[in-house]
Amino acid sequence: MSYNIAIDGPAGAGKSTIAKLLARELGYIYVDTGAMYRAMACYFLQNGIPAEDEAKITDACAGVDVTISYRDGEQQVILNGENVTGKIRTEEVGKMASTVSVYPVVRTKLVELQRALAKTENVIMDGRDIGTVVLPDADVKIYLTASSAVRAKRRYEELTEKGVDCNLEEIEKDIIDRDYRDMHREVSPLKQAEDAVLLDTSELDIDGVVREMKRIIAEVCHA
Ligand code: DC
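# 2'-deoxycytidine-5'-monophosphate complex -> structure
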């Protein structure tokens, strides 16, 4: 039987950084579900399909195939046979992913893939609806969050380090807009599962978050 850890939370809470580190330590597979939504978004952008046209998005979904594979332990996202892992991290793709993820047709496809992975492998899976919808029976559920100001600052520092010119206020505004969209959509909105443990990382560094996560996992597993 496989063991599943579900991590949900808003954009920029540190989910993927932490989940990756923990997966390596525990020998689990890390599944980044946001990357799957981003790959779908990439397809719609590449093909000029407008996010607000549900009928066109629905038609287009039939022609989209998203799968994942692993290279040196890193998740790769394959879109219709092309590895798009290096293309999906832009703000444009993130925004499009958040916009099109409101459509059930987009979600159904990806949720199926996510459940199939969790069935056969020990996974740490992160996203917005993992503990609530994708893996309601996950062994451990953690809801990771931080204030929008802290999340914006982290993102700003990450981009500045990469030499990208950006504006802190705009980043925080984008984060607040994205939170609103992800939390208020009709299908599978972002929310803390009733049985998830809440961890606010606003005052913690990466080591501190990993330490807390391990404590939570040990506690839940021995309860
Ligand atoms: O985690 P991320 O920033 O890569 O996710 C991009 C968008 O994809 C996010 O704003 C909403 C959507 N998403 C989702 O609806 N459900 C998930 N499980 C993961 C992501």
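# post-check
The chain has a mean pLDDT of 94.
The first strand starts at residue 4 and ends at 8.
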